[in-house]
């Protein structure tokens, strides 16, 4: 009984030591994450091997693991930029991105966990200022939104492509102009729209008038052709046909007396 405590204490100490070692050595990496291993006595950040993937890992207790999210992320940035004529424009843009998985070690070594603030956001600010500076407020407000968005993406891509960041998309969410400029642009657009509507009405009226002229000309041509074709002989033949049909009717009494100036019989009775 006197020897039991002497054996139990070292065993308990060993168990506690093992628990501490395991707790410091165990690393669990969650879904959509990856780990960068830092070897304290082995050259620092591991850049020549893939990062640690999802799941449970055991590492030496004197080493460290830095965990990064490697799924697509979104960052929204609001900034003030200048248009081509020097007006202050407020721009809100969202960037979709993720770190390049196979180069995560280099990203950590050169940019650290602060790579979003140190690299990505300055890049999109620089690209936005460069692109917006090529356009007028009117273009920013109306017709060039998609083009500006694409150009900001391309400019940002040039900056971050060798910074171990994968750029997926840039979305321009809002462009805010000074109120006086916005009102002036809206008035101009309204006037242009009214002018287009007026021109459309003029074109429509002109087409309708042309249609009426064509129809009238067609009727005049038809009457002229008909008049030219109605000779005395044709009129006389038609008169004879009409007289014959009238005489054949059982409800009509016809008295023929001589002939008219055109040689047709005169019809005196119709009971």
TrEMBL record:
It comes from Flagellimonas marinaquae. Pfam families: Band_7 (PF01145). It is found in: Membrane. PANTHER family: PROHIBITIN, PROHIBITIN 1. One of its GO terms (cellular component) is membrane. Residues 24-189 form the Band domain. This is Band 7 domain-containing protein. It is a single-pass membrane protein. The lineage of its organism: Bacteria, Pseudomonadati, Bacteroidota, Flavobacteriia, Flavobacteriales.
């Amino acid at each position: 009984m006197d020897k039991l405590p002497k054996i139990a204490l070292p065993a308990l100490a060993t168990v506690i030591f093992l628990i501490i070692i395991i707790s410091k050595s165990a690393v669990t990496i969650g879904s959509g994450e990856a780990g960068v291993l830092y070897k304290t006595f082995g050259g620092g950040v591991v850049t020549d091997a893939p990062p640690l993937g999802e799941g449970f890992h055991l590492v030496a207790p004197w080493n460290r693991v830095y965990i990064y999210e490697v799924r697509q992320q979104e960052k929204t940035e609001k900034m003030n930029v200048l248009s081509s004529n020097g007006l202050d424009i407020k721009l809100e843009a969202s960037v979709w991105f993720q770190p390049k998985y196979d180069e995560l070690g280099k990203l950590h070594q050169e940019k650290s966990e602060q790579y979003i603030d140190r690299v990505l956001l300055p890049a999109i600010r620089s690209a936005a200022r460069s692109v917006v500076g090529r356009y007028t407020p009117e273009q920013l407000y109306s017709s060039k939104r998609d083009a500006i968005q694409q150009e900001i993406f391309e400019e940002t891509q040039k900056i971050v492509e060798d910074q171990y960041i994968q750029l997926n998309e840039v979305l321009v969410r809002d462009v805010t102009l000074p109120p006086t400029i916005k009102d002036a642009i809206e008035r101009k657009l309204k006037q242009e729209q009214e002018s287009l509507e007026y021109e459309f009405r003029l074109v429509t009226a002109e087409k309708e008038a042309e249609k009426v002229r064509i129809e009238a000309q067609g009727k005049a041509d038809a009457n002229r052709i008909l008049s030219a074709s109605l000779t005395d002989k044709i009129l006389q033949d038609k008169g004879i046909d009409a007289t014959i049909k009238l005489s054949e009717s059982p409800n009509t009494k016809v008295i023929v007396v001589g002939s008219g100036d055109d040689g047709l019989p005169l019809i005196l009775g119709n009971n």
